[in-house]
Design a protein that fits this description.
Blueprint (H helix, E strand, L loop, with lengths): L2 E2 L7 E2 L4 E2 L4 E8 L4 E2 L4 E11 L4 E2 L4 E3 L5 E4 L4 E2 L4 E3 L2 E2 L4 E2 L4 E2 L4 E2 L4 E2 L4 E2 L4 E2 L3 E4 L4 E5 L2 H24 L26 H14 L14
Parallel strand pairs: 1-4, 2-4, 3-5, 4-6, 5-7, 6-8, 6-9, 7-10, 8-11, 9-12, 10-13, 11-14, 12-15, 13-16, 14-17, 15-18, 16-19
Antiparallel strand pairs: 19-20
Length: 223
């Protein structure tokens, strides 16, 4: 993986973390245990420190950076969705930042908060714990339900499991020649995590029919 020292500061990665070979870490970057960093993630600690807490995941093509003398801090079990940008902000423990969201300087996301996909959290905004935020600019929509918080926790656990699986299951290969493969089973290990609207639909079906919901996986308002 590309790791770059900058002016005597260099990335530090816990032995139990998985950092994809196509992610880029520069300078003052600290990655805690059981983290997952996806391909294309850029953590640039040249101006200030980037801290990724225990069990957090930073997914594909995320950017973490800050102004000089500041820092970005992602708390334990943070969940940063594909293509998100975190700039000079603090993300509390257990927070979910949805795909392609932007969180600006000095914003503080309270523990367990959820930032909807495509949301822009302006500089200095304080998001309460366990609340849903959506929109451009971001607006606090409502408090999260216990079911939504449980769904988020399971999703983060799935990425913690993926970090372990990647150590032995990920390798570079040459493409196979021959006819394209037919339908293949879902790539599942452990429980099957699904989008929350599917999870909710399964729960509704159970209430109506008494039959078990499909395996688990924040609704459409959470992106």
């Amino acid at each position: 993986m590309p790791l770059y020292a900058f002016e005597g500061r260099f990335p530090e990665i816990a032995p139990t973390a998985f950092v994809h070979p196509d992610s880029v870490l520069t300078g003052d970057v600290l990655v805690g245990g059981h983290c997952y960093l996806g391909p294309g993630a850029s953590l640039r600690g040249d101006f200030g420190r980037i801290v990724v807490g225990e069990g957090a995941n930073i997914q594909d093509n995320c950017v973490l950076h800050c102004f000089p003398g500041r820092e970005v801090r992602v708390g334990a079990d943070g969940h940063i969705g594909h293509g998100s940008v975190l700039h000079g902000c603090r993300v509390g423990p257990g927070v979910l930042v949805g795909m392609n969201a932007v969180v600006m300087d000095d914003a503080e996301l309270g523990a367990g908060a959820v930032i909807g996909a495509g949301c822009v959290v302006p500089a200095g905004m304080a998001v309460p714990e366990r609340h849903l935020v959506v929109g451009v600019p971001a607006k606090i929509l409502r408090e999260l339900t216990a079911d939504e918080l449980e769904w988020k926790a399971r999703g983060t656990a799935t990425y913690q499991e993926l970090a372990v699986r990647c150590v032995t299951g990920l390798s570079t290969v040459r493409p196979k020649s021959g006819p394209p493969p037919g339908d293949s089973p879902a790539h599942v290990a452990g429980w099957r995590h699904v989008p929350l609207h599917d999870h909710r639909a399964g729960a509704s079906a159970t209430e109506a029919t008494g039959t078990p919901a499909p395996p688990d996986g924040p609704g459409r308002d959470l992106g």
